[in-house]
Design the sequence.
């Protein structure tokens, strides 16, 4: 004979589900502050955008003077690339650099890695060609600066 335990019945006590506990604190969620744009990254993005626009304009001017040399003088050409295919590559490279500068401005992580990679390749090139000059020092400082502010990219 099974003995059944009697539970006191109260007027509003009906167990429909598991008990809830009201005194626990809410679940903690990590909230990251919005990253701020460092001044050096902003300057690097502006300079990179200027280089991208310069390459685009240079490629377009070369193609225009190559095919329309009667209308446009050849003195407008900024960079002489040899043929229109080289100018097309120059325009595409300028567009990629302009997109990279926009991503740097918005602090995207892929732009950080790409920029650091380009700077590293530039440093390696300058080092192995014995071109340790002011340009090498500037590229090295920008490289170290980007590594220092890497936590601002997301």
Sequence:
């Amino acid at each position: 004979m099974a003995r059944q335990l009697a539970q006191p019945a109260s007027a509003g006590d009906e167990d429909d589900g598991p008990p809830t506990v009201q005194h626990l604190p809410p679940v903690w969620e990590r909230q990251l502050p919005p990253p701020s744009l460092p001044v050096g990254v902003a300057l690097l993005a502006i300079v990179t955008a200027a280089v991208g626009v310069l390459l685009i304009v240079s490629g377009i001017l070369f193609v225009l003077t190559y095919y329309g040399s009667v209308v446009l003088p050849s003195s407008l050409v900024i960079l002489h690339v040899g043929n229109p295919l080289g100018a097309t590559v120059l325009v595409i490279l300028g567009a990629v650099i302009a997109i990279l500068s926009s991503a740097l401005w918005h602090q995207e992580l892929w732009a950080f890695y790409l920029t650091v990679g380009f700077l590293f390749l530039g440093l390696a090139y300058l080092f192995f060609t014995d071109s340790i000059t002011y340009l090498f020092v500037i590229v090295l400082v920008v490289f170290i600066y980007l590594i220092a502010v890497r936590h601002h990219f997301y």
